[in-house]
Amino acid sequence: MDILIYSPDGKTAAYETGLAEHLPQANIRGWQPGDTAPADYLVLWKPNAEVLQPREGLKAIFNLGAGVDGVLGPHGDGVQRLPAGVPLVRLEDAGMADQMAQYVSAATLRYFRRLDEFEAQQAQRQWKFQKPNRLADFPVAVLGYGTLGAHVARALKTFGFAVRAWSRSERHDDSGIALHHGEAGFDACVSGARVLVNLLPLTPQTVDILDANLFARLAHGAFLINVARGAHLVEADLLTALDSGQIAGATLDVFRTEPLPPDHPFWRAPRVSITPHISALTLRDETVAQIAGKIAALARGEAITGIVDLARGY
Ligand code: NDP
Ligand code: OXD
């Protein structure tokens, strides 16, 4: 079997080695410009049009991430670039869910325990008591209750937060999380929330969802944690909401333009915390093991999970 690996920076060697350990019988190559040769499987991240040209024998395309917006584009039109009838498969967890739970829990607890305020006091050498927040006043809303969102919501629940979550389709479980779905359930999920966590995929339905209209429904002085995609956020609306105090602070891991340009106003916004898209890294060993396992299953004629529904866009 032939496996072709593509990365925009051309650094594919570690994935070639990793996959070869799991699939010693496979011919594995990194993509070079002009490579239109047949391949059974494509493994890629943010592909160019050339690598997606129809290839003889192609059976599946594996995305080196959970979000497939780098393939489909924020408006879903990239679907036309995909070879017809070839499944697109995304990463499922692969070590990202624990990382995401750590990151979001740390940010939420920082706000709940007022650690950001104590940091500011320390800078002024101030020894000053701050009234503790009460869990009852700190409902947390998680947008997206999939692989990552559900894991994050459950982690937050263990600290005693009243957690609500929102999905597209109806969900039931015994987690004690208040589950809402669809347009009709949106308001109940976000109304009065003190912390808003975004873990939605970027699709035509979710682009720009973090806007003034949504911020106005949260509690006054709410906190935003965006760990999904930069294009979910209307940046000007966040800056306005920070100015008015409607949003008291934001933790942002993803941005419309990455790396965030040096002159971007977020760098200077006092209550914005920035990380460089590291909330859940793609872990090579876990990723390679998952993709190799799915390739082996397909080769045996078995069904696999994680196939993207191209009509839904995730
Ligand atoms: P999943 O596909 O497992 O979950 C997506 C969730 O969003 C599902 O609950 C889904 O609903 C819900 N959803 C999708 N569209 C809508 C909609 N229109 N209205 C309401 N709910 C909707 O994805 P993952 O949890 O694996 O990943 C989520 C995103 O996290 C990725 O797409 C990626 O953008 C981002 N990410 C960011 C990383 C980082 O480092 N910053 C790392 C990894 C991922 P339903 O349950 O009904 O299908
Ligand atoms: C992903 C990411 O989608 O790393 O996996 O952002």
Automatic annotation (TrEMBL):
It comes from the Bacteria. Pfam families: 2-Hacid_dh_C. Residues 107-279 form the D-isomer specific 2-hydroxyacid dehydrogenase NAD-binding domain. GO terms for molecular function: NAD binding; oxidoreductase activity, acting on the CH-OH group of donors, NAD or NADP as acceptor. InterPro entries: D-isomer_DH_CS, D-isomer_DH_NAD-bd, NAD(P)-bd_dom_sf. The keyword Acyltransferase does not apply. Keywords: NAD, Oxidoreductase. This is Glyoxylate/hydroxypyruvate reductase A.
